[in-house]
Design a protein that fits this description.
heterodimer, A: alpha/beta, Alkaline Phosphatase, subunit A, eight-stranded mixed β-sheet, 42% helix, B: mainly alpha, 1 helix
């Protein structure tokens, strides 16, 4: 029985992996002791709660680092229990794990200076130093106790590892049975490891990232306690596109050209509520109101409600997304931070204080909330919403009715819109709320009861567009009966586009075409503007609307400012491997060093 | 002014104008400020 399924070998493997978990828990405890005053963990219960949330990140790091060890332990080589083979496994195990653990120990000290877990970006700081060896030696002398702790930890770890040995008894079953059961167990383990590295097994959830640590925190520094340094280094590896560039430009010239600080002093007596819809994949192509200038032959709109709402709104029919993915959209729209090659929210720099529409409206006394019908934490939105400072996050958990889950991404748009509406009914005004929708996306399904109701169109996306347009209609019909409605400004945009039907939208720049629509029930904003606009303009536009009189950081500009802007309308984005900067009638394609293309209407 | 060559089909880089140089300079200034603020944690 002992040899059936190589049970004894698997038990030892699990024991060795659990030892790694134990060491991570110990290093987290040391991290807490060394950085007690920075972490502000107030009770044992809070410590345990945060440690519990840290398990997901420990699992990801442990499985990353131990993949070779697991592979060598589980593959059916027959000689797995042999002494020499076990010695090889021993060295593989301790080489990878001690390298990982050493990073945790570095942060016992370095965290005090960095206020963040070390990431791969720290290498940018160190690599330019000629005296790296001296730096290391100085560190070793100054923080000898950390080295001593590391050595003691290693010794205890090795002793514990050797306490449980693998039996060298030969496998008693036949070779075929040995191979088949081994392969089956190996595949099961691989599945568990992939789930562990991703954070869970749901398709709708992206692999956990640094930003996800903020899902469970009320203080930004608690995220660093939840994280571990091997994880922060591994997950930022090859994410070094966030590097300073000089171009021999001096700060005064940059400030003159970019005007990174904006101010829109004006007086607003009755501060309006603001509701922003970031509509999943809702490209400008699908909405008829935005397509008059395109003059597409036989064009069909799939948005009858939004088309009618547009006649009472201010719309921008040359608006563009600053990024290409959903995770790019949230930081662009709410914080005015575009993403280029890599998502800002996946970068080592996402965990910092960020001035955004949320922080400013919080300071102005607004109630702030973020709605996303996906499983809580999907796309890293929960973590990033905590960084931005939203008072409340409402996801699938808060919706609390899985019967209306679409089975893939989240709660269907229509019921989730209604959930947002009834939640807003309970808010004190003024409030600022954002919803990131989910239904208009691959696999392009809509609720069964609505099948056949909306035009199928020419691409599968069209039916979803029709359904989400219907969800908008239902929302506005219900909301207009509420007392808060009249003093609310609604902004409708999209994260990016999706399936393309018309060749006009296959053009490179138009692949980023999204709507920007501003609707105020009191008719304050109406008309059609054909100047360049972008997602990062939405944040300063809102700040302008609410009458905030102080300067604030924003690379975008207000789309409704009555005063002539010193900033010319522009759009910045990233296509292929190049930046794209458009202004006036010129598109500049920039490879990061020099312009490689100019395009216009000549 | 509008951009008609949204498909980026005709590269005019061999006929650079002062306006093009100005747009490239703004692009550089934007990227410099963007990366500096992010890396310096000054958002």
């Amino acid at each position: 029985m002992q040899q059936f399924f190589r049970v004894q070998e698997y038990k030892v493997l699990i024991y060795r992996l659990l030892l790694v978990y134990l060491m991570y828990a110990f290093s987290r405890f040391l991290f807490f002791i060394y950085n007690y005053s920075f972490l502000e963990i107030d009770s044992v219960v809070e410590y345990l709660k945060l440690s519990y949330h840290g398990l997901a990140f420990d699992t990801a790091a442990i499985f990353y680092l131990n993949s070779l060890f697991v592979l060598l332990s589980m593959l059916p080589f027959v000689i797995n229990t042999h002494k020499i083979y076990q010695k090889i496994i021993f060295y593989v195990y301790f080489t990878t794990n001690l390298i990982g653990m050493s990073f945790n120990f570095v942060d016992l000290i370095y965290y005090k200076f960095n206020y963040n877990r070390t990431t791969i970006s720290e290498w940018d700081v160190v690599k330019n130093e000629d005296n790296r060896f001296e730096m290391f030696a100085r560190f070793a002398v100054s923080y000898w106790h950390v080295f001593l702790l590391f050595i003691l930890t290693t010794v205890v770890w090795i002793v514990l590892y050797k306490k449980v040995k693998i039996s060298t008894k030969p496998y008693s079953k036949g070779v075929l049975s040995y191979v088949l059961t081994s392969v089956a167990c190996f595949l099961l383990m691989i599945t568990l490891m992939v789930g562990g590295i991703r954070g869970d097994f749901r398709k709708s959830t992206r692999p956990i990232n640094l930003v996800d640590a903020n899902r469970h925190t009320s203080k930004i520094q608690h995220a660093d306690f939840i994280l571990n340094t091997p994880f922060t280094i591994i997950r930022t590896f090859n994410k070094k596109t966030f590097k300073k560039v000089s171009y021999d430009l001096k700060k005064p010239e940059v400030d003159r050209l970019v005007q990174p600080l904006k101010a829109y002093p004006n007086t607003v007596k009755n501060k309006p509520n603001i509701v922003v819809f970031i509509t999943e994949s809702y490209g400008r192509e699908y909405i008829g109101a935005f397509n008059d200038p395109t003059q597409i032959k036989d064009y069909v709109s799939y948005t009858p409600f939004l088309d009618s709402l547009a006649t009472k709104s201010l719309i921008f029919n040359k608006a563009y997304a600053n990024g290409r993915k959903s995770i790019h959209g949230m930081s662009s729209v709410l914080a005015g931070i575009p993403s280029f090659k890599d998502a800002f929210t996946s970068s080592p720099y996402a965990n910092q204080d960020i001035e955004s529409v949320v922080s400013i409206l919080n300071s102005e006394g607004y109630d702030t909330s973020f709605f996303h019908g996906a499983p809580n934490g999907s796309m890293g939105f929960l973590g990033f919403s905590n960084i931005l400072g939203f008072d409340n996050y409402y996801g699938k958990t808060e919706f609390n009715n899985d019967a209306l889950f679409d089975g893939v991404w989240g709660i269907w748009d229509d019921p989730f819109f209604q959930f947002m509406k009834t939640t807003l009914d309970t808010k004190t005004t003024p409030f600022f709320s954002t919803i990131f929708t989910v239904t208009s996306h691959e696999p392009y399904i809509i609720p069964k009861e609505y099948e056949g109701v909306f035009p199928k169109g020419d691409v599968p996306m069209h039916q979803c567009v029709g359904y989400t347009d219907f969800a908008f209609k239902q929302f506005f019909e219900a909301a207009k009966k509420e007392p808060w409605f009249q003093n609310t400004i609604f902004i409708i945009t999209a994260d990016h586009s999706n399936q393309i039907r018309y060749s006009e939208y296959r053009k490179l720049m138009n692949r980023l075409a999204v709507p920007i629509m501003i609707y105020s029930p009191n008719g304050e904003f109406t008309g059609v503007k054909s100047e360049l606009a972008q997602q990062i303009d939405i944040y300063p536009t809102i700040i302008d609307m609410v009458g905030y009189n102080k300067p604030f950081r924003s690379w975008g500009r207000s789309l409704v400012s009555e005063k002539p802007s010193k900033m010319d309308p522009f759009v910045v984005s990233f296509i292929g491997q190049n930046y794209m900067y458009s202004e006036g009638n010129i598109i500049c394609i920039f490879d990061g060093v020099k312009a490689v293309g100019f395009y216009d209407d000549q | 002014m509008t951009i008609n060559d949204l498909g980026l089909e005709t590269n005019l880089i061999s006929n650079r104008t002062a306006e093009m140089d100005a747009v490239e300079l703004k692009c550089k200034a934007f990227l410099k400020d963007y990366f500096e603020r992010i890396v310096d944690r000054n958002l």
